[in-house]
Amino acid sequence: MSPLGPHPSLCDIHDLMNLAEQVRAGNIRAVSRLISLLEDHPGGREALRLLNSTSRGTRVIGVTGYPGAGKSTVVNCLVNFYRRQGLKVGVLAVDISSSVTGGALLGDRIRMQEHTLDHGVYIRSMATRGHHGGLAQATGDAALVLEAAGYDVILIETIGVGQNEVDIVDVAHIVVAVVAPGLGDEIQAMKAGLLEVAHIIVVNKGDLPDADNTLRDLREWCPNVLRTVATTGEGISELAAAMTVYQQSRDVGHIGEARNC
Amino acid sequence: MAVTSAPLRILIGKVGLDGHDRGVKLIARALRDAGMEVIYTGLHQTPEQVVNTAIQEDVDAIGLSILSGAHNTLFRRVLELLKEQGAEDIALFGGGIIPDEDVTTLTADGVKALFRPGAPMQEIVTFVKGLKSHG
Fold it and tell me: What is the structure's pLDDT at A258?
């Protein structure tokens, strides 16, 4: 393998092949650079073909939900959970770009700092760059890069969403919606949108006084509603278990077209 | 929104024990407003965390605020680690209360710029934007 040049070009096939080889070998800089190339050049998917990636059974978990509900903290807990199982974990954390300046403040990884020095964890912040739907345009491609680099679990955190940012459904095998108590009554659960597409709903900040009401309202309409307190880790192993049950049932075709809500 | 070119990606954070983060947050906000993607790491980072984050995030530059007096040790350690990782192409700049003689030696060692109290925000933004042309 040649050493990585500082700025591999999409136009140079040798650069790309070298990059792809290093991605497959799990080189972090190569992973980062390939993701940047895919972000900066939406037409650059040719680069992905060079990875020759075959599906390794990587689990792609989407974590979505309202702004401030605790998505990043839930993701941090899930990283802990899967690391304890010895799995390599990739995180793609999406935040919104300013529609005025194009700039973005990417702050999700602040909640995941305990993993910064763990070589089994890769965390990448992505800005939406004008893409609608709750993800960046390149988020799905970035997940493929992480799969090729040998990550066993990929957690994708969407921007804080409203009711119409549901692209995550097309990218992740399973979608967890994180809500917090006190953000509305059962009518919200009856509406189309986020709660409709989630396979599992998590009421985070479950130690707040209003949590019981929120759980009761949501359970009227959705079977898979769990309580977590992500700041302490409470409820996370139950969440992981529920995800496994869901995926096992899906793998053998029990779920079919059905949605939880 | 039309995105015409790839935005600069900049890691902004604080290293060491000092917890004065008003200034660094203003810088993060100003760079965001100048159209950059700012990865804000928050407080109490170690040089190892900063460099690992910079590599995972594929940033063009690292900007660190240090008001604790430990600038000589911390900036040099970040430079060392970038070199160890073969990532010297990531520019390092910073801000803080840093005496003249330390500014001279740190910039000679490879810190691209050091901004001190009173530095106009526009000067900092212009400096960071200029990093792009150096590739």
Answer: 39
Please provide the size of chain A in residues.
261
Locate the domains of chain A by residue range. 13-49, 59-251
Rounded Cα distance between A227 and B37, Å, is 34
**Domain A59-251, architecture per CATH:** 3-Layer(aba) Sandwich (3.40)
Determine the residue of chain A that is closest to B48 in CA distance: A117
Whether residue B13 contacts residue B24, with contact meaning beta carbons closer than 8 Å, is answered with yes
Residue of B nearest to A114 (CA): B49
CA angle B60, B123, B24 (to 5 degrees): 65
Asked if A105 lies within 8 A of B32 by C-beta distance, the reply is yes
Task: Outline where DSSP puts E strands in A70-192.
Answer: 89-95, 104-106, 121-127, 153-157, 174-179
Q: Which of A19, A29, A32, A106 to mutate to test the interface with B (most CBs of B within 10 A)?
A: A106
A99 and B1: CB-CB below 8 Å? yes
Decide if pLDDT at B1 tops 60: no
pLDDT digits (tens, 9 = 90+) for A121-161: 999 999 999 999 999 999 999 999 999 999 999 999 999 88
Q: Report residues of chain A scoring pLDDT below 70.
A: 1-11, 42-43, 184-186, 189-192, 251-261
Decide if A28 touches B, using CB distance below 8 A: yes
**Structural domains of chain B, with CATH:** 9-134 (3.40.50.280)
pLDDT digits (tens, 9 = 90+) for B35-94: 999 999 999 999 999 999 999 999 999 999 999 999 999 999 999 999 999 999 999 999
- Quick one: average pLDDT of B111-124? 96
Q: Is A64 helix (H, G, I), strand (E, B) or coil?
A: strand
Q: Which of B101, B99, B120, B124 is nearest to B112 (CA)?
A: B124
d(CA B31, CA B126): 10
Over residues B19-45, the pLDDT tens digits come to: 888 999 999 999 999 999 999 999 999
Determine contact, residues A134/A103, Cβ cutoff 8 Å.
no
Residues with Cβ within 8 Å of A249's Cβ and at least 6 positions away in sequence, in order, are A255
Rounded Cα–Cα distance for residues A145 and A41 (Å): 15
Name which of A97, A101, A105 is nearest B28 (Cβ-Cβ): A105
Residue type, A66: Y
